[in-house]
């Protein structure tokens, strides 16, 4: 893999509530290579959004380290963090909730430019027109209000807004989950084109592994704030090494319902983050759980090039299958 733009080491985020402490992100470590798209997948409540926002310091980390292009931003002072924010942006799941309905599209996209004192009014307007064209809209759209657009068009506006400050890193938080399948494909292809054109690095957060497999170079699987598996998208799709990843894969619909597949159904619901299971947090839903799984959190088990599973039984369960796939 290429040089990492983002390095995450033992990252944790805890929320203290009247009912107890929520471990939303718990001791997570991985790299995001420059110019790549890393997918972050897991069920609702797995900590994906919290992790993404913590990387941007929209949520302050409770522990660990985040390095951006070699700079430790974990506790960077606000003034320096403001300069760093020009290099990192976010695309939200629901663009309408992040777009002020009282502002025209051109003003919305230019907000970041005004905040950083970039260009005069005419120059900013020219920049907004170019951004709208880049995301597949028209310069005429800048004088309309957000409510005049479809969901897919509003997401393109959100993407244009994120691009305005020429960022190097973008967190896309469930950015296509609310769109129809055909519109999803258009937006995904737009993100791929922008990645190539701008050499963007992205963290793409989703719950749909089929979308992630199409878009991403690397996939990280999160469950109850813990990393379960990380590896190249092809390996995660074809030879997943963790029982949780296998369960997520087996839930992807196939074009031919009669086709044979490995079925690993998930049992029960995701436990409360206030009271996670001891040891491996997935063990209470794992069909292969053994007494060893309750004793201490599993470490990283290498299963192939840049491919790791956080499961004490990976080698016993799937070692041969995974090893063969990497030869």
List keywords for this structure.
327 residues, alpha/beta, 2 domains, 8-stranded mixed sheet, globular, Rossmann fold, 4-stranded antiparallel sheet
Number of strands: 12
CATH architecture of the largest domain: 3-Layer(aba) Sandwich
Low-confidence stretches: none
Q: Can you give the mean pLDDT?
A: 90
Strand content: 15-25%
> CATH topology of the largest domain, which one?
Rossmann fold
CATH class of the largest domain: Alpha Beta
Query: Helical region count?
Result: 12
Structural class: alpha/beta
**Spatial strand order of the main sheet:** 6-7-8-3-9-10-12-11
Q: Order of SSEs, N→C? A: EEEHEEHEHHHHHEHEHEEHHEEH
How would you describe what is shown here?
The chain is α/β, with parallel strands linked by helices and 327 residues long. It folds into two domains: 4-87 and 167-325, P-loop containing nucleotide triphosphate hydrolases (Rossmann fold, 3-Layer(aba) Sandwich), CATH 3.40.50; 96-166, no CATH class. 33% of the residues lie in helices and 23% in strands. The chain has twelve helices and twelve strands. It has helices spanning 48-55, 78-85, 95-98, 105-109, 111-115, 121-134, 151-163, 181-198, 209-215, 233-238, 243-250, 314-325, and strands at residues 4-17, 20-33, 37-41, 63-68, 71-72, 88-91, 169-173, 201-206, 218-223, 226-232, 301-304, 307-309. The strands form two sheets. The protein has an eight-stranded mixed beta sheet, with helices on both faces. Strand 9 and strand 10 form a beta hairpin. Helix 6 (121-134) packs across helix 7. The longest helix is centred in the middle third of the chain and has 18 residues, at 181-198. It starts with a strand and ends with a helix. The model has no long low-confidence stretch (mean pLDDT 90).
């Amino acid at each position: 893999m290429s040089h990492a733009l983002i390095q995450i080491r033992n990252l944790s985020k805890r929320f203290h509530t009247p009912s107890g402490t929520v471990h939303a992100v718990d001791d997570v470590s991985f790299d995001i290579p420059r110019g790549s798209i890393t997918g972050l997948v897991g069920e609702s409540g797995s900590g994906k959004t919290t992790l993404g926002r913590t990387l941007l310091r929209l949520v302050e980390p409770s522990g660990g380290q985040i390095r951006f292009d070699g700079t430790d931003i974990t506790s960077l002072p606000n003034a320096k963090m403001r300069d760093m924010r020009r290099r990192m942006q976010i695309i939200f799941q629901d663009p309408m909730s992040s777009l002020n309905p009282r502002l025209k599209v051109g003003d919305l996209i230019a907000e970041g430019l005004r905040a950083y004192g970039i260009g005069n009014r005419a120059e900013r307007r020219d920049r907004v027109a170019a951004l709208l064209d880049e995301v597949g809209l028209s310069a005429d759209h800048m004088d309309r209000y957000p409510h005049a657009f479809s969901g897919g068009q509003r997401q393109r506006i959100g993407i244009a807004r994120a691009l305005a400050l020429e960022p190097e890193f973008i967190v896309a938080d469930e950015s296509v989950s609310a769109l129809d399948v055909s519109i999803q494909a258009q937006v995904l292809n737009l993100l791929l084109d922008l990645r190539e054109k701008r050499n963007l690095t992205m963290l793409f957060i989703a719950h749909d592994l089929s979308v992630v497999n199409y878009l991403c170079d690397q996939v990280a699987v999160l469950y109850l704030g813990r990393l379960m598996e990380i590896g190249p998208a092809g390996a995660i799709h074809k030879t997943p090494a963790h029982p949780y990843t296998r369960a997520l894969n087996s839930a992807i619909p196939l074009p031919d319902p009669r086709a044979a597949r490995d079925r690993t159904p998930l049992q029960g619901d995701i436990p409360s983050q206030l009271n996670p299971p001891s040891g491996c947090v997935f063990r209470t839903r794992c069909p292969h759980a053994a007494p060893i799984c309750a004793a201490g959190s599993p470490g990283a088990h290498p299963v192939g090039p840049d491919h790791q599973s956080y499961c004490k039984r990976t080698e016993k369960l799937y070692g041969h299958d995974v090893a063969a796939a990497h030869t």
